[in-house]
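Folding Problem: From Residues to Backbone Shape
Fields: amino acid sequence; protein backbone structure tokens
RECORD BEGINS BELOW THIS LINE
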Amino acid sequence: MRNRVPLVGLVETLLGPCLAVVCLGLSVVWHDQSFDRQYVVLSVMTFLLLFPGILRISEDRWRMAGKASLAWLTLCFTLLAFGYATGYLDYYHQGVIATWQIGTLLALLFCHEVARQILVRVLAHNRHSAIIIGGNDTGVELARHFERDRYAGIQFRGFFDDRPRERMSAQSGGLPLLGDMSHIAGFVKKENIDQIYIALPMASQPRILALLDALKDTTSSVFFVPDLFVTDLIQGRVDQVGGMPVVAVCETPFTGANGLIKRLEDIILSCLILVLITPVLLACAIAVRLSSPGPIIFKQRRYGLDGKDVLVYKFRSMTATDNGAVVKQATKNDARVTKVGAFLRKTSLDELPQFINVLQGRMSIVGPRPHAVAHNEQYRKLVKGYMVRHKVRPGITGWAQVCGARGETDTLDKMERRIELDLYYLRHWSLKLDFMIILRTVGLMAKDSAAY
């Protein structure tokens, strides 16, 4: 909402990053240290990694506290692991770092709760009155949002619709119907309505134009809510091309700053992980070489970003290396899987060479898992929205994998479930979601029975 941007949006965006930097400065002062270059670098890194804030003031109190704790602890673990692996940790006073990390977590929890309480009181005295024109599914969904979100700053007064209540959306029960469209202008003037939301279908263009003419004699803000947004959009938003407004129906989440943040995440984490797992890579390579004849690394063609072919690396886990027009998926007790390969697949260690693919820019650490080209050609004809998953780079791990949709897709409904989860990731991407998937992947590596 427009009225939400300067106040609630500003708090959500800046509170977390700014608190972390302020707490670092206070920790340095508390331990009688100088705010030298290393702390300036740490401040900048922390601010960039936390910006924009991932917390939403309107969320449940305990959910928000959980998200704040997980996000901050993940960041702390990442910074400590990177500092330890590179030796930079020795440049920092250990007391400063400990005080900063503990103090910032407490400050995040306290200040976000205080912000919730203050904002809800401020907005209670500065609410905008609003009506919705059109009691259809779009209008009802918007009205329910106004009722649920105390931080939207909107007082919903009711609907206007030419249809009787029984012909309106079945979900509109309990919501006030103020009259038909001929009464709108008079009601708006009499009640000093601040905002008007038009939720009529696009087919009603003549009625909309007539309505806009009638509302020109008011000072209300008028918003058009196209029925397009009740469809299942991928990163739906309004944009401009040459000054002309356009609506994004299916777009990658990694445009502009998000694309830069995602790439930096991949480069930093993959470099750190490759340094840490070098002994594991060497051990796996030796084990594969001794287990059976054939190459150590299996290279397979997969669909990458925008559906372009890429070569993906894995430790070879089978005696066969299918990479043609027909690729048979691994099945339970598959005779092609070597003993070493079974262990590598069970623990996901066979995927480790793909961190090299990440550095090459072919893959991402988190994203939809790439399928063999033969499987893509098969399922793109059977599963709605299948190719949309290729709007982003394929990942070493993904939302589908940590939600149980891993392993053989021997039935169509299993593949449909996987694609549904992949598209959820595209719609809801955030750095927090990426870190959560990474942590859940680590927990699943030793106990996932779906891998074979």
Summary: Residues 238 and 247 are 5 Å apart (CA to CA). Confidence is low (pLDDT under 50) at residues 1-5.
